[in-house]
Design goal:
Largest interface: A-B, 116 and 114 residues
Helix content of chain B: over 70%
Largest sheet of chain A: none
Structural class of chain A: mainly alpha
Structural class of chain B: mainly alpha
Radius of gyration of chain B: 17 Å
Strand content of chain B: under 5%
Distance between the termini of chain B: 20 Å
Radius of gyration of chain A: 17 Å
Helix content of chain A: 55-70%
Number of strands of chain B: 1
Number of helices of chain A: 6
Number of domains of chain B: 1
Number of helices of chain B: 6
Oligomer: heterodimer
Number of domains of chain A: 1
Mean pLDDT of chain A: 96
Largest sheet of chain B: none
Order of helices and strands of chain A: HHEHHHH
Mean pLDDT of chain B: 95
Chain lengths: 137, 147
């Protein structure tokens, strides 16, 4: 059942991203372009997801185990450090250049968009690069 | 501020956001995990890079498969929405590297810190979201209006 939930969650997540318009990097960049012709759509995506998410996480916090019997793994880390901020900044610069963040890039790759393949390959390389050379020791 | 009303898709984007929230709920209640894409990708990737000592979590790999198959299900019912990038290959490589390093260093992306973190009122996630949003706004400003 864990596998089924994994697959269905990914599928539904992807459909949500497509419906939201987030698989078009131009639309994402139009949201980030405050000084240009600004498209506020991404704020609606976050608003919708978080409105439901608040209820979901409040209910999940009361559970000990998931439906499939695994312990609930809700993050407990509260550390706010330089890596958290620097990581966010690096991610944001890359997001601003390409208009892709990880989820929409994978959906776009699945749709057969060659540019998404280039981005995802570089993103995976970046993750490996970080874990090899930049991870906290 | 100049709002691009012709591009603005409030209802589709709100509905899409709710569907993303639903997927987050399914993964959280179903498997007890946060639907953070950066982590879902990084964890099996780490296992693969480590060789045989770590086994990739199949449910995460299937989450990624679901994401990548979503366009096919979509196209069975509706036309694929137009999508394009406005940078070349070199730009995409730089963007991908920065996103890959950044989401690992900051331990999350738009889904993990953005949707999940903000939904549980995590101050740590809020700090990360403000950093990547601010950097995203600044980067597009520099690229479109200063160069």
């Amino acid at each position: 059942m864990r596998k089924v939930f994994g697959f269905i969650s990914g599928l539904v997540f992807g459909l949500g991203l497509i419906l939201a318009g987030m698989t078009d990097p131009r639309k994402v960049k139009a949201f980030l372009d405050l000084a240009g012709a600004w498209d506020p759509s991404l704020a609606m995506v976050m608003g919708g997801a978080i409105a439901l998410g608040v209820v979901v996480f409040a209910r999940a916090a009361k559970r000990q185990r998931s439906w499939t019997g695994d312990p609930m793994e809700i993050p407990t880390v509260r550390v706010i450090d330089r890596r958290l901020v620097a990581g966010g900044i690096l991610f944001g610069v890359g997001w601003g250049i390409g208009g892709f963040c990880p989820g929409p890039a994978l959906v776009a790759l699945g749709s057969g968009m060659p540019e998404a393949g280039v981005f995802v390959a570089a993103m995976l390389a970046g993750m490996v690069l970080h874990d090899r050379f930049l991870a906290r020791r | 501020m100049n709002i691009a009303w012709s591009q603005f898709t409030p209802w589709a984007s709100l509905a899409g956001g709710l569907v993303i929230g639903l997927a987050t709920a399914l993964f959280l209640f179903g498997n007890g995990r946060i639907a953070g894409i950066a982590g879902i990708v990084a964890s099996p990737l780490r296992a693969v890079m480590a060789g045989s000592s770590l086994r990739p979590d199949v449910s995460r790999l299937l989450f990624i498969a679901g994401l990548m198959l979503a366009p096919w299900l979509w196209r069975a019912a509706a036309p694929w929405p137009a999508a394009a990038v406005d940078v070349g290959t070199a730009g995409l490589v730089v963007a991908g590297l920065l996103v890959g390093v950044g989401v690992r260093m900051g331990n999350g992306c738009t889904s993990g810190h953005g949707v999940c973190g903000l939904s549980r009122f995590s101050m740590r996630s809020l700090v990360n979201v403000l950093a990547f949003m601010g950097a995203g706004f600044a980067t597009v400003f520099v690229l479109r209006h200063l160069t």
